[in-house]
Design goal:
Largest sheet: 6 strands, mixed
Structural class: alpha/beta
Bound molecules: adenosine-5'-triphosphate, magnesium ion
Number of helices: 9
Distance between the termini: 40 Å
Number of strands: 10
Low-confidence stretches: none
CATH superfamily of one domain: P-loop containing nucleotide triphosphate hydrolases
Strand order of the largest sheet: 6-7-8-3-9-10
Mean pLDDT: 93
CATH class of one domain: Alpha Beta
CATH architecture of one domain: 3-Layer(aba) Sandwich
Helix content: 40-55%
Strand content: 15-25%
CATH topology of one domain: Rossmann fold
């Protein structure tokens, strides 16, 4: 069994079947790129994997644990259990989705602080000031370390509107890293950025790959996908039209649809 197993994911909106049964697997530390034309279902797939959308069918397992199984009756799962399962995944959005009223560092610490407070409350430690302060300090130190890794230390106190697009996207990546997801997903992380800002974000993603972070990246940057990935999926009309190594998919595509898509992209 692979580290990440995604089986038979199906999703319809009204009468339109957007995902028609998606199957793939990924080993720990591998990078998967998903390419495909607009409307093929890439974002919907990422949203299903990240529990932001409920698939109609399918199963997802991470590290041997089934985190989603539509065949099992999971409607009764508590909100807390759902949140715990969601934490296996992190998603970085195309448009950053930072909280505008929080500083860069505030964006990193917010979720971790809420999580810690909830845990301390469950352990009945939330009124113990020393314990709470130690916990908050640990979160603050962790945020500082991640901001430093992202070369954003000097931006910690700035608000999103005071940052460039590339810096915002690096804050968004840092925020996702704060919760240390087992699989980090990106939905076109550079498509809202100018070419020079794109490079700084791609550099960060490459460095995460070098640290063996398991990642799924939806991207239109074909050159990048070819260089950074262990595996590439080409999606068309809600199905995986072709998958393989970058050399297979980019160098020797088997499907006519893949060939057309790649030829069009070169123009
Ligand atoms: N919430 C929704 N309600 C209805 N239809 C939706 C919804 N979300 C997505 N769709 C439809 O599902 C299809 C796939 O959309 P999706 O956003 O997954 O495509 P995509 O591959 O990410 O495209 P792009 O490259 O443009 O981002 C589209 O036809 C879209 O209109
Ligand atoms: Mg999309």
């Amino acid at each position: 069994m692979a580290f990440l197993e995604v089986k038979n994911i199906k999703k319809s909106f009204a009468n339109t079947e957007v995902l028609k049964g998606i199957d793939f697997s990924l080993e720990k530390g591998q990078v998967l790129s998903i390419i495909g034309s607009s409307g093929s279902g890439k974002t919907t797939l990422l949203r299903c994997i990240n529990f932001l959308e409920k698939p109609d069918d399918g199963e997802i397992a991470v590290g041997g644990e089934t985190v989603m199984d539509k065949q099992a009756r999971e409607d009764q799962l508590s909100e807390q259990e759902l949140r715990r399962r969601r934490l296996h995944f992190g998603l970085v959005f195309q448009s950053f989705n930072l909280f505008p009223q929080y500083t860069a560092k505030g964006n990193l610490t917010l979720a971790a602080e809420l999580q810690a407070k909830e845990r301390l409350k469950a352990q009945r430690l939330h009124k113990n000031r020393d314990v709470v302060e130690a916990e908050m300090k640990e979160i603050s130190d962790r945020a500082d370390a991640i901001l430093s890794r992202m070369e954003l230390s000097d931006k910690a106190g700035q608000y999103p509107c005071q940052l460039s697009g590339g810096q915002c996207q690096r804050v968004a990546i840092a925020r996702a890293l704060m919760l240390d997801p087992e699989v980090l997903c990106f939905d076109e992380p550079t498509s809202a950025l100018d070419p020079e800002l794109t490079e700084e974000v791609l550099r960060v993603i490459r460095s995460l790959r070098d640290e063996n972070r398991t990642m799924i990246i939806v991207t239109h940057e074909m050159e990048f996908a070819r260089n950074v990935s262990d595996k590439v999926i080409f999606m068309a009309d809600g199905v995986i039209e072709e998958q393989g190594t970058p050399d297979e998919v980019f160098g020797n595509p088997q499907s006519e649809k893949t060939r057309q898509f790649l030829a069009h992209d070169k123009k």
